[in-house]
């Protein structure tokens, strides 16, 4: 097994209209790391994430997961080890009940009977959602939907959890619930987010994307201290680093 779990080398994505989604992006992520990808609207975060499980095919460069290069031949294996939680849970929940949604992936892997049941119960338990098992996904609140969508991915027992805007659109209570879950996972975690306070609290390492390229990659606190870098990349410091919102630090 390679030391680095995820390695992205000189990755480029050019959309059919000729524009670059990302260009010359390289980084390595080790087992168990929690890494945030931040950047202004259109910086290339979603484009990058979609390469990590082969949803998009690169126009140049490579993605390596463990010892294996991501190619059409390794795609199904990579999708088993890289679980993707989409920004919108409705893209992930399409069955009649939450339990069926959570069982869907393991069923496709050939699991059945007690083994399947154990997977479903464990995944729902990890997101504190066993009570939602028989509910229709479209009856759930935003926070419940998010947790159910995460459970569908956990049921596949991935090595890497990739999440696009895990706290996006959630009220403060649901946001905190999802943050609590994220903090408790031991998986390698890669999230793209505009929630810079969440990034500061939960992700020791941050990569900034700016116009499709890596503008910085390092300890999150160091990156958020560099106001010039943040301004260049059309970002701001997290509120928690800006002092009191009323007096701006004077009280
Ligand atoms: N299907 C597409 N065709 C052409 N250009 C695209 C397509 N999808 C994205 N882009 C462009 O690629 C660039 C990166 O977009 P991407 O969605 O990856 O950014 P993002 O950082 O996730 O943005 P946001 O924070 O707004 O979600 C943008 O300039 C966008 O307009």
UniProtKB/TrEMBL annotation:
<dbReference type="InterPro" id="IPR015856">
    <property type="entry name" value="ABC_transpr_CbiO/EcfA_su"/>
</dbReference>
<comment type="similarity">
    <text>Belongs to the ABC transporter superfamily.</text>
</comment>
<dbReference type="GO" id="GO:0005524">
    <property type="term" value="F:ATP binding"/>
</dbReference>
<keyword id="KW-0813">Transport</keyword>
<dbReference type="InterPro" id="IPR003593">
    <property type="entry name" value="AAA+_ATPase"/>
</dbReference>
<dbReference type="InterPro" id="IPR050095">
    <property type="entry name" value="ECF_ABC_transporter_ATP-bd"/>
</dbReference>
<dbReference type="Pfam" id="PF00005">
    <property type="entry name" value="ABC_tran"/>
</dbReference>
<keyword id="KW-0067">ATP-binding</keyword>
<dbReference type="InterPro" id="IPR017871">
    <property type="entry name" value="ABC_transporter-like_CS"/>
</dbReference>
<protein>
    <submittedName>
        <fullName>ABC transporter ATP-binding protein</fullName>
    </submittedName>
</protein>
<dbReference type="InterPro" id="IPR003439">
    <property type="entry name" value="ABC_transporter-like_ATP-bd"/>
</dbReference>
<keyword id="KW-0547">Nucleotide-binding</keyword>
<dbReference type="InterPro" id="IPR027417">
    <property type="entry name" value="P-loop_NTPase"/>
</dbReference>
<feature type="domain" description="ABC transporter">
    <location>
        <begin position="6"/>
        <end position="236"/>
    </location>
</feature>
């Amino acid at each position: 097994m390679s030391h680095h779990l995820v390695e992205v080398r000189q990755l480029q994505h050019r959309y059919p209209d000729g524009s670059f989604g990302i260009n010359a992006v390289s980084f390595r992520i080790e087992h168990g790391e929690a890494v945030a990808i931040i950047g202004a609207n259109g910086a290339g975060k979603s484009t990058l994430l979609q390469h990590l499980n082969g949803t998009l095919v690169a126009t140049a460069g490579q993605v390596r997961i463990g010892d294996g290069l991501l190619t059409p031949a390794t795609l199904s294996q990579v999708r088993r080890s890289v679980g993707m939680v989409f920004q919108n849970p409705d893209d992930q929940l399409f069955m009649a009940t939450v339990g069926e949604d959570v069982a869907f992936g393991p069923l496709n892997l050939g699991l059945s009977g007690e083994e399947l049941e154990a997977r479903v119960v464990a995944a729902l338990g990890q997101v504190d959602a066993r009570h939602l098992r028989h509910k229709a996904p479209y009856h759930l609140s935003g926070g419940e939907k998010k947790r159910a969508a995460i459970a569908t991915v956990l049921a596949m027992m991935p090595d890497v959890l990739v999440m696009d805007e895990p706290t996006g659109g959630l009220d403060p209570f649901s946001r905190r619930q999802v943050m609590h879950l994220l903090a408790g996972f031991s998986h390698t975690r890669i999230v793209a987010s505009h929630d810079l306070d969440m990034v500061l609290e939960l992700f020791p390492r941050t990569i900034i994307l700016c116009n499709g390229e890596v503008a910085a990659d390092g300890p999150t606190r160091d990156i958020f201290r560099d106001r010039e870098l943040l301004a260049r990349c059309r970002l701001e410091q997290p509120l928690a680093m800006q002092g009191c919102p009323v007096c701006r630090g004077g009280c």
